[in-house]
Amino acid sequence: MDIEQYREYCLSLPGVTEEFPFGEETLVYKVAGKMFALSGLEEFNSINLKCDPEEAVELRERYEGVTPGYHMNKKHWNTVDIHSNIPNKLLLQWIKNSYDLVVASLPKKEREKLSQ
């Protein structure tokens, strides 16, 4: 996956915004003001994704390219090395799972807005 594929996919999800709250080099994707994915812009080597705590541990054990979230809450975030042998289809699924996890935590009114 390259940064353009990543960017296009994230922006294709309902209600997503692209922001730079940590400076010009960290690309952050949010839904309803809450982060679900972030990566380096200049050096696109990994993606931080929100994850169910139990699934996060399972993915780390199963895939060499998945580690606890770099500079994030390690219980809820994983860092995925995009240069590892993880197929793009799986990366896209994990991005969507991260998005869905954040959406599920939103108030009902916010979730309804996104489903319109």
Automatic annotation (TrEMBL):
InterPro entries, A to Z: YjbR (IPR007351), YjbR-like_sf (IPR038056), YjbR/MT2646/Rv2570-like (IPR058532)
Which Pfam families does the entry mention? YjbR
Stretches assigned to coiled coil:
none
Q: Which domain of life is it from?
A: Bacteria
Task: Report what the protein is called.
Answer: MmcQ-like protein
